[in-house]
Amino acid sequence: MQVPPNSDLTLGMVCVEKSVPGRCTWRMRADERFANPAGTMQGGFLGAFADSSMGAAAVTFAQGRKVFCANAEMKISFLAPVPRDAILTCTAHVVSGGSTVAFVEASIWAEGAEHGERDRSEAPEAGGGADAGGGADAGGGAGLEGRLVARANSTYIFRPRG
Fold this sequence. Notes:
This protein is α+β, with helices and mostly antiparallel strands. It is 15% helix and 36% strand. It has one domain (6-123, 143-160): Hotdog Thioesterase (Thiol Ester Dehydrase, Chain A).
């Protein structure tokens, strides 16, 4: 098995934080190769970014068990367009899980792009929320100057690895 997988390498994804089991933070740039005819990032690339991030969170949740993690279903909501060259940060965390399944949520933030600051009402709460304790600020860079551009959730199935 190749780690990191080709999909992550192709998209230019980098894991910047995975020290807490069931939680991770990834970054990538909205490269012009991923733009749609309107000049913004095509949604499928955001979906792939969310899927890789959530899959990694599910794998760290398994904490040493030898398992493969398979995505059974995924939903993503696109909340704002992502212009070329924006720096994307995806925070993913396991909401609930057990020995055979994990339910994972993710938020994708964009910064350094043509859109302005996000509303303070969208800021993560100090004691909870999808981005608390390792959210957009994990690893430095994306703070309140970013904008929430997508949210996703997914169900991952754990399968034993030989």
